[in-house]
Amino acid sequence: MEKLKFESVLTNGSSANDFALPDYLRENGKFSREKTLREIVREEYGEIDESGVKISVKDVTDEKFDGDYGYFFCGKAKHAALEFSLEKDGKTAAFVADVFVPSRTKNYDFVVHLDFMKYLPTKYCPVEELMDGGIAVAHLYYKEISTDDGDFSTGIAPLFCNRSESYAAGKLSLWAYAAKIVGEYLINEGFTVKEKLYVAGHSRLGKTALLAAAKYEIFAGCMVNCSGCSGAAISRGKRGETIKVITDVFPFWFTPDYKKYADRENEMPFDQHYLMASVAPRKVFVVAASEDDWADTDAQYLCAEAASEAYKELGLIGLKPVSKPLEVGERNVGGNVAFFVREGVHFFSREDWAFYLACLRDKNEKSPA
User: What is the 8-class DSSP label of residue 138?
Assistant: First the structure.
């Protein structure tokens, strides 16, 4: 296995090369997104067979809830509730996306936000603040897509999963697929364009957001919040949560075969930089919390550094090179990969959203008129 070599400035004093990260898979000597992505998705998350899926969308907006005549938050937003119905091989499922669009600006980015909570605004999705920032939101309650447990008989799971297969899709793949079909609808119906469409999530849904952006090129990038193990954190040498821990407690998030790498991270023919690199040349915005030792800030920064090598091969800047580790409260911005070490614990805060909004503003200011 070829090793990926690059410079690193981790806060714990480790060198990137201490972990002997596997190099990317290549085609004619060049980074191959297709091969690299296929390797990690097959081994870790499982593929979704989209063939034969029929999708319909219905407006189910509750006009009683819509008491201020279609405008919310002092008239800052318009709202619609859209029900996505899926049918495959005689099986059906449905979930709702709550869509909020700024009513006072037309030049907005759009975020598909996977959330742990259903009724808006939530502590993770401050809708009014996002409207103030010029961000439209399609909000998905993740358990309505598929429950967060080992039950694959409800939601969209029966349409796609046969868990007797070693490489069957896990829940992360199901949640990511739902984000994709919502994103496709938003583009096809003229709500936005793919250059302005992002996907966001926190913790296990941060893993999902990174997976969705890596797999589905309809997204211009992702907002990956405190995603940790099997998300935006390198598994080799990781502190806190490990593959053994996560597959013991949450085996249903992943393909059944992933557990074979428990306590064998150094034997994996891939690591999480494969997933982040597969977003290239698009954007990745990462937040890690200073006290979130379970997710491991250093492992997340190492992943961003390693993924930046793929951007470099494409003639782009991933993370901007720095000469010293980021301090708590500092940001590495300006490249296609941005990173913020936010003070505090595992959470999706207003401060995190402010960072993502600043990244979008920076992106928009650099875009050609």
Answer: E
What is the rounded CA–CA span in Å between residue 230 and residue 204? 9
Alpha helices (H) along the chain: 33-40, 127-132, 142-145, 157-160, 171-188, 204-215, 243-249, 273-277, 297-313, 350-366
Rounded Cα–Cα distance for residues 24 and 193 (Å): 30
Neighbours of 88 (CB within 10 A): 18
CB contact set of 107 (below 8 Å; sequence gap of 6+):
134, 364
Token representation of residue 79: 């709202």
Residues 6+ apart with CB under 8 A from 240: 228, 229, 293, 294, 295, 296
Q: Is the pLDDT of residue 339 over 60?
A: yes
Helices (H), 11-112: 33-40
- Identity (one letter) of the amino acid at 310? A
Q: Return d(Cα 163, Cα 148) in angstroms, integer.
A: 15
Tell me, yes or no, if the pTM score tops 0.85.
yes
* pLDDT tens readout for residues 282-312: 999 999 999 999 999 999 999 999 999 999 9
Contact status, residue 64 vs residue 53, Cβ threshold 8 Å? no
State the CB neighbour count (10 A cutoff) for residue 167: 16
